[in-house]
Structures are given as structure tokens and as C-alpha cells.
Amino acid sequence: MLSLIQNEWLKIFKRVGTYVMLGLLLLVIGVSGAFMKYDDIKSEVPEDWKATVTAELAAQQQELEQIEENGFNDAYRSYLEEQIAINQYRLDNDVNPYEGETAWTYVEENAGAIMFVGLFAIIVAASIVASEFSWGTIKLLLIRPISRTKILLSKYVTVLLFGTFLLAILFTVSLILGFILFGTDGNSVHLAFVDGKVVEQSIVGYLIKTYFLRTIDVFMMSTMAFMISAVFRSSSLALGISLFLLFSGSQVTALIAMKFDWAKYSLFANTDLTQYTGETQPLVEGMTMQFSIIMLVVYFLLFQLLAFVVFNKRDVAA
User: Fold this and answer.
1) How far apart are CA 39 and CA 61, in angstroms?
2) What pTM, to 2 d.p., does this model score?
3) How many alpha carbons lie under 13 Å from residue 118 in its C-beta half-sphere?
4) How many helices (H) and strands (E) does the chain have?
5) Which member of 72, 129, 142, 250 has the lowest number of beta carbons within 10 Å of its beta carbon?
6) 3-class SS of residue 58
């Protein structure tokens, strides 16, 4: 099994496209660092930060009153209520939000680049099985005294390892570049609105948790792309469907959730587990992390069942 994974790993890194993806990821990290450093230099720190936060708080409270009078836009109302609570907490506990950028805030900013990691992982997952059929090399694999299950499992494990490898690069390079550009002097506390109240979280623990939870989306989309690749033997189909759903699945699900509660059973309503940590609100009222984890397990098992059953029963000569 280990030799199969090593073989698949070598195949990935023999492709020029792999190094292009690595280069693009490093470019995204570097460009975001340059822009963030420029903004940090140009930004003016308020002399009286409490007066600034008080003004923001008053404006948010006024806007909330207007929304409540209109009686719609629950999502934005929830967002305003969270921001009001956080700003009030800052004033009550002397937490200055204008202490400048740090390595930690830079790593937090680059969490958005996890989308690129997901994109690159999907590209690999969509081709790792289908390419064997298109190139005709699948017969060379299957004539070996190794079960089809082990062959497919080694490919899937390689996809997960590649995604983890890209995530490690994103986090490590961001942290190193953040130390160089911004240092660590500044606020080391992250404020989150959880269960109706504001809580202080260690910025390091928050970042580790955020990166971990956001990778769920990467791995689930990669698993779906891998399944499509194994079932339909088409890398272009797997790539097209997976990328379309990656960029539009959450938005479409959010629109459906505005009218129908059954949207909570959609895969895309459950992949973002940060909705339970105070970053955003659950897509459908009443959803819990336990529910989302159960749904993710169900979808994961379904994808794996389809991939392995079809791959094991397929007539390669056909």
C-alpha cells in the first residue's frame, strides 16, 4: 500500500502543472502580503480608538433599528447584532481593534486562500483516476497482483496528502512571511460571538481551528471530484462539475434556504463548519455542528461507495 502511494505521489510531481499550482499558491501569498503591508503603512491609527468604536456602535444600532422596522433581512440583522455585541465588549473590556497588523492577522487573512488549495486539490482528484483510463495505463495497474480496492484507495489517500501538503505550505509560508513583514507585537486575542455572547479566544488556537474547519470543504469537494473521476472516467467532467459546485454550490444553497428548510440536507449547507464558531450564522435556523458532521459523514460514505463499487465492477476492456 505504501509503495502504491509513493508511486502516485511521484506521478503528481512529475507533472509540470503541479509546480505551476505551487507557484501560483506562493504568488497569492506574496501578493496578499505586499498589499497588506502597504495598507498597514498607509492606514492611520485613530488617536482615540474608543471614540471611533463608539461612533461605529451608534451607526450600527441605528441601522439595526431601521432593519427591525422593515421586518426583513434576518441574516444582516444577525450580523449587526453580533458586531454591536463585539464593539460593546471592546469598549467595556478595553480591547483596542486598531493595534496594527501582526503575523497572526496576516495568517488569518490568508485563510481565504484555502479556496485555491481546494481548487488545486480538485484538479488532482479529477484526473488521478480518469487519466489512467484516457492514457490506457489503467491496464498496467490492474494486471499487477494488487486488488482494485487498494489501487483506488492509494489514489484517494494521495489526493488527501496532496491537499494537506498545500495547506501546510499555505499556513507555514504565511506565518514566516507574516513574522518578517509584521512581527508579533499587537493584539493576540480574537473576539467571537458564540451562543449569544462575546468570548475571547487565543489567536493561535483560533487560527488552527479555522484552518482545520475550512479544510473540510476542500476534502469533501476533492472526494466528490474523485468519485466522479472514478465513476465516469472523465477528468474534464469531474473537474467541470466540481469547480462549478465549488464556486456556486453555497450561493445556490443559500438562496434555496431562504424559502425551504430542506436545504439543510444539502452538502453545501454543511461543509462550512465555521458557521458554528461565531464567524457566520448557520444557513438554516436550528442547524447544529453535530447535524452537519452527520450529514458530511453520510455524503462521504455515499461518494466512497459509488467510487469503489463502480471501479471494482468496471470492465476495463470496454
Assistant:
1) 28
2) 0.81
3) 23
4) 12, 2
5) 72
6) helix
68 confidence band (pLDDT: 50, 70, 90): low
For 170-198, what is the mean pLDDT? 81
| Percent of all residues in the chain with a pLDDT value above 90, rounded to a whole number | 15
- Provide the grid cell at 164: 494537506
Q: Which of 234, 160, 170, 227 is closest to 21 using CA atoms?
A: 170
Scored b (16 or more CB within 10 A) or e, 277-303 reads: bbbebbbbeebeeebbeebbeebbeeb
Measured CA to CA, the distance from residue 167 to residue 202 in angstroms comes to 21
Asked if residue 164 has pLDDT above 80, the reply is yes
Rounded-to-integer distance, Cα 216 and Cα 274, Å? 10
Q: What is the distance of C-alpha 225 from the center of its chain? A: 16
Backbone angles phi, psi at 38, to 5 degrees: -65, -45
pLDDT, one tens digit per residue, over 135-157 is 666 666 667 777 878 888 888 99
Q: Dump pLDDT digits (tens) for 273-301.
A: 887 776 666 777 778 889 999 999 999 99
